[in-house]
């Protein structure tokens, strides 16, 4: 059965959301462009919002599992159970054109992700075949038959996992060229390319063992020196004896290892996606989780001795919890300013969530799979956590 995917990215005045349609049309990709009819200097209300949908016949031969934008939002990569990756480029007319398509793995390709363009045009993919692969785009030289044409080559295959590799993410660029994978066997691996000019060489820097099967990972993008490198790991493990399907790991400068800093014990159901919000100078962290509903957590670091080898402790608050999808939620994605969150679920809709000045979150838009907006739906703009009673009821205990 197909699941809905959504991704959200801000490109100057534009924000784009893409998803994979369900069931019969699971081989199509839709892009949603959010813009406004008023200048950016003015506030934009619901009446001035406009969504433009474009349908792309991706021509994958099987289910599309993931869609990923590059940093600038003008390139897109898709991956599928047909074991292939396709790269799409956006033209000046807004149309997406497939510029590369190739077989990548010997099993279903679960995820694909772009490196920061500072490191070149680099992709990473992971698969059911227990591997992760790094790809680089090169342009043919003058003596090549394909001179002037670009093509993708395999730089390295990471084969440390003994089970399906379920997610792959590049670390924030300020950490250098680093790549993280997680596997169904509960191991998170962090690799580093010591020479960014030689992507065939990657060294395994860290192995983090979890007691739960791992389904997704997210790096904290904060580049502040006040925040140690941090990674969130989600689990879809069916073992009910282990509570807390989200674990937070933090790098310790003293031990030079990653240690578990927090477990979100209130998340007891399978986690399909997880995403740290862009930090933008905040002293705390915001984390969105896709499970049987949409949840937004606030992680406030507590003071600790800088020389201590113990991980940071956090005050964990639940900012919002929405079950408006009435089904499993498969993707959550922030815009670049962390003011909007997009989620998609088995109800076939993408929903947009926004907080007001009091930090109360509500749904500001619903898009169907064909790109049309849902209007007049009961509860479409509800789900606001306004009362202190509701807020305190959601703030559950955490464990380690």
UniProtKB/TrEMBL annotation:
InterPro entries per UniProt: Sec13/Seh1_fam, WD40/YVTN_repeat-like_dom_sf, WD40_PAC1, WD40_repeat_dom_sf, WD40_rpt
BP GO annotations: cell division; cellular response to amino acid starvation; chromosome segregation; positive regulation of TORC1 signaling; protein transport
UniProt keyword annotation of Cell division present: yes
Compartments reported by the entry: Chromosome, Centromere, Kinetochore; Lysosome membrane; Nucleus, Nuclear pore complex
Main localization (coarse): nucleus
Pfam annotation, one family: WD40
Keyword Nucleus listed: yes
Keywords for this protein: Cell cycle, Cell division, Centromere, Chromosome partition, Kinetochore, Lysosome, Mitosis, mRNA transport, Nuclear pore complex, Nucleus, Protein transport, Repeat, Translocation, Transport, WD repeat
Gene Ontology MF term list: structural molecule activity
WD repeats: 57-89, 322-354
Any single GO CC term annotated in Swiss-Prot or TrEMBL for this entry: kinetochore
Functional note: Component of the Nup107-160 subcomplex of the nuclear pore complex (NPC). The Nup107-160 subcomplex is required for the assembly of a functional NPC. The Nup107-160 subcomplex is also required for normal kinetochore microtubule attachment, mitotic progression and chromosome segregation. This subunit plays a role in recruitment of the Nup107-160 subcomplex to the kinetochore.
Protein family (similarity comment): Belongs to the WD repeat SEC13 family.
Annotated protein name in UniProt: SEH1 like nucleoporin
Organism in which the protein naturally occurs: Cyprinus carpio (Common carp)
């Amino acid at each position: 059965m197909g699941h809905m995917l959504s991704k959200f990215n801000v490109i100057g005045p534009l924000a784009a959301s893409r998803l994979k349609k369900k069931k019969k049309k699971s081989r199509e990709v839709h892009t949603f462009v959010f813009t406004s009819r008023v200048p950016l200097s003015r506030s934009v209300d619901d009446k001035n919002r406009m969504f433009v949908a474009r349908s792309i016949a991706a021509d994958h031969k099987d289910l599309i599992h993931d869609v990923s934008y590059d940093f600038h939002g003008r390139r897109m990569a898709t991956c599928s159970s047909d074991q292939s990756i396709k790269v799409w480029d956006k033209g000046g007319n807004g149309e997406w054109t497939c510029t590369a398509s190739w077989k990548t793995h010997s099993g279903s390709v679960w995820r694909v992700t772009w490196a920061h363009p500072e490191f070149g045009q680099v992709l990473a993919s992971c698969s059911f075949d227990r591997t992760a692969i790094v790809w680089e785009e090169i342009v043919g030289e003058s003596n090549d038959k394909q001179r002037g044409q670009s093509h993708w080559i395999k730089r390295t295959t990471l084969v440390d996992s003994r089970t399906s590799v379920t997610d792959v993410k590049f670390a924030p660029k300020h950490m250098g060229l680093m790549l993280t994978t997680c596997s169904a066997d509960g191991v998170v691996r962090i690799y580093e390319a010591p020479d960014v000019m030689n992507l065939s060489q990657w060294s395994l820097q860290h192995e983090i063992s979890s007691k739960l099967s791992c389904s997704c990972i997210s790096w904290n993008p904060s580049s502040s020196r006040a925040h140690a490198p941090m990674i969130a790991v989600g689990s879809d493990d069916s073992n009910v004896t282990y509570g807390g399907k989200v674990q937070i790991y933090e790098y310790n400068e003293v031990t030079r290892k990653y240690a578990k800093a927090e477990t979100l014990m209130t998340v007891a159901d399978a986690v399909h996606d997880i995403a740290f919000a862009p930090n933008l100078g905040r002293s705390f962290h915001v984390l969105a989780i896709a499970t049987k509903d949409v949840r937004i957590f606030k992680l406030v670091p507590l003071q600790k001795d800088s020389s201590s080898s113990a991980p940071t402790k956090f005050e964990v608050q639940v900012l919002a919890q929405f079950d408006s999808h009435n089904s499993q939620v498969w993707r959550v994605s922030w815009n670049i300013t962390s003011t909007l969150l997009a989620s998609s679920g088995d109800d076939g809709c993408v929903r947009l969530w926004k907080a007001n000045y009091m930090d109360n979150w509500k749904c500001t838009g619903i898009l169907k799979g064909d790109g049309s907006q849902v209007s007049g739906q009961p509860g479409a703009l509800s789900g606001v956590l306004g009362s202190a009673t509701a807020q305190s009821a959601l703030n559950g205990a955490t464990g380690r």
